[in-house]
Specification:
Number of helices: 13
Number of domains: 3
Order of helices and strands: HHEEHHHHEEHHHHEEHHEEH
Helix content: 40-55%
CATH topology of the largest domain: Lysozyme
Strand order of the largest sheet: 1-2
Shape: flat
Number of strands: 8
Structural class: mainly alpha
Length: 373
């Protein structure tokens, strides 16, 4: 039955008695009838509004009873409002009961490894655990691994070419990553400097000059050449790459003393300073991940790596120190760009004497033309 018709029928069910008599009684009866009609129309309008509201709702809900028959409201279990979601204290995001924890993939370390062609005794429990520790720390260090992959594209082609020229194993390129993350300007608290972390005395022994404000330990190419010569000499002495690399880390005297004291000439059996005990295994871990990054979930898109540096080399002879700002202006580059290409100059001046400067490709000729000193 339609609501409007029902309302009209109800209205006509009320008996209307009008007595014929005095005008006041007539007026009183008329007012009474009008009052009842107004109440009925108010009730009818409210009922129609409730029905329309229920029809527009996306979730059907029972219509409330009319005001004249109001009853206490009861909420069924299906109608109860779900409790508000609360942030997880561990993740900082909102969780539902249906949410599952994010699973971190587990990557097993390689069961076999070689270092510069020599087998690593991973079948020995102690060696395996030391390798497993370093591998785990490396493989889950996502940001650092991607930075290594990017820098490798800039530096590894040239490093590999020089290793081939020296007849040295390619695994030695990973030593530079462990030493400096392939960053030329790195310094250690103990005084080691540059991409291969030469100490002052060792650097001087291998041709890395440190005079005044010029320190060629920071020159990537010169320090790389010096590192390969040193590593080659150490291998000739020990006839073992693990020992040679460990010696590169903690020094020839320390390794010789420990071998004499312990009566052992095997790196994997020696008790050494903690840094040196981890050093070779960290190089192995870096090699494992970077030599096969996709196996461990890493993919560097083509073009995302850092480009190789293309430079012009200009040899100049200054009779007196020249400010880097003036030299950069003559080349048409910024002070920062000049310092990035020539990190061996540690101060604001280029020392007097013969110097080789690196400038962006195409800037060499204009630098020499504009040279005002």
């Amino acid at each position: 039955m339609e609501p409007s018709r029902q309302g009209i029928d109800v209205a006509h069910q009320f008996p209307i008695f009008i007595s014929i008599g005095a005008p006041e009684k007539k007026e009183e009866a008329r007012k009474s009838i009008m009052k009842r009609k107004n109440k009925l129309w108010t009730l009818l309008s409210a009922l129609i509004g409730l029905i329309l509201l229920a029809g527009c709702s996306s979730t059907p809900t029972p219509s409330p009873p009319p005001p004249s028959a109001a009853q206490p409201t009861m909420t069924t279990p299906s109608e109860r409002v779900a409790p508000a979601r609360t942030p997880s204290p561990d993740s900082g995001r909102y969780l539902r009961q249906s949410d599952s924890p994010i699973m971190v993939p587990y990557y097993s370390p390689p069961e076999r490894m070689t270092l510069c062609g020599e087998p690593v005794p991973l079948d020995v429990a102690d060696a395996w655990e030391r390798f497993d520790k370093e591998f785990t720390l490396v493989v889950y260090n996502h940001a650092q691994v991607y930075l290594w992959l990017k820098r490798m594209e800039r530096y590894f082609p040239w490093i590999e070419e020089r290793l081939h020229a020296y007849g040295l194993p390619e695994d030695l390129k990973y030593v530079a990553i462990v030493e400096s993350d392939l960053q030329p300007n790195v310094c250690s608290p103990k005084g080691a400097a540059g991409p291969w972390q030469f100490m002052p005395s060792t650097g001087a022994s291998y041709g890395l000059d440190q005079q005044g404000s010029c320190d060629t330990r920071f020159d990537f190419e010169r320090s790389t050449e010096a590192a390969f010569k040193l590593l080659n000499d150490l291998y000739k002495r020990y006839k073992d790459w693990a020992l040679a690399i460990a010696t590169y880390n903690c020094g020839d005297k320390r390794i010789m003393d420990e071998m004499r004291t312990q009566g052992v000439n095997n790196y994997y059996l020696l008790k050494l300073p903690l840094e040196t005990e981890r050093y070779v295994f960290r190089i192995l871990a870096v090699k494992a991940v970077l030599s096969d990054p996709s196996r461990y979930g890493y993919h560097l898109p083509k073009g995302a790596g850092y480009q190789e540096l293309r430079v012009d080399r200009v040899t100049v002879n200054f009779t007196s120190p020249v400010s880097i700002q003036r030299a950069a202006a003559a080349a048409g580059i910024s002070y920062r760009e000049f310092k990035e290409l020539n990190p061996a100059f540690r101060a604001d001046d280029i020392p007097a004497g013969t110097q080789e400067l690196k400038l962006p490709a195409g800037k060499g000729a204009s630098f020499q033309k504009n040279l005002p000193f």
